[in-house]
């Protein structure tokens, strides 16, 4: 039986361990903290292939430059982080064009083509909270409606029907919990959402019951190498021998890969949430508040608002003005959402590549080192399909999708990309 060591116990590491174990691989899963405790647990839990477009989008260069001057904007770049992030930001802005955006959208959509089917299969083996209520994109401006409709129409080849446009009157009948001067909404019936914490618990329970070795609180210090092979993962508590190694360490992927001499320009896109227990507002659908870029997810006994993108390096400092901006955004659409029995604020770090695409596949320096990371806001959506893809690739040498766009070391081809990798 071959042995794989996975570094990183978020949604990608957990589901990759699941898929490898089902294929007969002996798996050891390492995490520097606890499993599913980082950005995998505090996100909105959306299953939305309709949002497959990369973060660097056409027109975002000017917008992001304006936003970076405002601490409560949807995209905030902390000034003190700019010198270190400069090469990464150059590559990010270089990809804010229609050609790269369209190519990235279709590559990501192809990877997630079977997302809903895979979640249904996953639910047969794991216990987690999943809702099939579609997604409501709520707009204050008519031009926002057109943008959403165009994005969803681009997904027709990937199993989506045309979305339903709702007038303000139809919207309030469809979702009575919404208030405010709204222009229209777009309902995408195919999309879903889950309670991410429940998926993390369900995955851990399955892995424990099926012989996967789980090692929380284990920090990787290096890799033992022999020629083109990684023979063991070195940690502060000892070595873990491996026939194959998968780095799925989220925002820490670049730092872990660097210990093997591999440059991956991964940075952290910090996100925030506020979760209210037993909110007095009862929503039937998850909402994307388009013009303020806030996600709203209703769960059993809870309501979560989430969003913002902050580039400030690897840290989990909770910046109160960012949370306040989330609250103000939600207040424009939903009156009284924050009235409940308890309330918590959270911050986590999304793994971000400069072009907004995943780092998924093997690295040329080694025959047995693989990477699965860089999902930005799509970690939950693309978790099952990423796990199936990398597990197939590791066990058969073949991938069900073209991995070329996701080459983990694709930025080695440019000077600023290499520099961004060294600074990650």
TrEMBL record:
<dbReference type="InterPro" id="IPR036188">
    <property type="entry name" value="FAD/NAD-bd_sf"/>
</dbReference>
<protein>
    <submittedName>
        <fullName>FAD dependent oxidoreductase</fullName>
    </submittedName>
</protein>
<dbReference type="GO" id="GO:0016491">
    <property type="term" value="F:oxidoreductase activity"/>
</dbReference>
<keyword id="KW-0560">Oxidoreductase</keyword>
<dbReference type="GO" id="GO:0005737">
    <property type="term" value="C:cytoplasm"/>
</dbReference>
<feature type="domain" description="FAD dependent oxidoreductase">
    <location>
        <begin position="4"/>
        <end position="392"/>
    </location>
</feature>
<dbReference type="Pfam" id="PF01266">
    <property type="entry name" value="DAO"/>
</dbReference>
<dbReference type="InterPro" id="IPR006076">
    <property type="entry name" value="FAD-dep_OxRdtase"/>
</dbReference>
